[in-house]
Amino acid sequence: MAKSMNKTEQHKKAIIEALEKSLGVVTTACKNVGIGRTQFYNWLKDDKAFAKEVDEIKNIALDFAESQLHRQIGEGSTAATIFYLKTKGKQRGYVERQEIHQMADNLFEVEILGGEDSDE
């Protein structure tokens, strides 16, 4: 006969299910289950198996966000394309850099490289 879950285990299971539905939003999941955020973070700190399940949900949420970004790029969103290139295309030079040159008397000069308004 299977051992029945105690109340803490039931709450942990419920919070995992609520996190899945809320795509990892802790406040929403805690409210839906009726537990406090402090209790959630205590479980996260003290229970490695629980923490592993929560991390997996975070990865699922990140995958979902990335799929939405790719969808927007496919639909021609300039902002989504720029965001993607700035974050994932750095190796190919899609970065914005600032160089700061310090001058005498604590004055400094800021030169922004690679801006769209650059005449160079």
Q: How is this fold's topology laid out?
A:
Layout (H helix, E strand, L loop, with lengths): L6 H15 L4 H8 L3 H10 L1 H27 L3 H11 L8 E6 L5 E6 L7
Antiparallel strand pairs: 1-2
Helix pairs in contact: 1-2, 1-4, 3-4, 4-5
Question: How many helices does DSSP assign?
Answer: 5
- Helix/strand-derived class? mainly alpha
Model regions low in confidence, pLDDT < 50 over at least 5 residues: none
Order of helices and strands: HHHHHEE
Task: Describe the largest sheet.
Answer: 2 strands, antiparallel
**Strand line-up of the largest beta sheet:** 1-2
Residue-averaged pLDDT, rounded? 85
Overall geometry comes to elongated
The separation of the N and C termini measures 76 Å
Beta-strand residue percentage: 5-15%
The count of DSSP E runs of length 2 or more, i.e. the number of strands, is: 2
Indicate the radius of gyration in whole angstroms.
Answer: 23 Å
Please give the share of residues in helix.
Answer: 55-70%
List keywords for this structure.
two-stranded antiparallel sheet, elongated, 59% helix, 10% strand, mainly alpha, 120 residues
Protein described:
The chain is mostly helical and 120 residues long. It is 59% helix and 10% strand. It is built from 5 helices and 2 strands, in the order αααααββ. It has helices at 7-21, 26-33, 37-46, 48-74, 78-88, and strands spanning 97-102, 108-113. It has a two-stranded antiparallel sheet with strand order 1-2. β1 (97-102) and β2 form a beta hairpin. It is elongated. The relative contact order is 0.07. The mean pLDDT is 85.
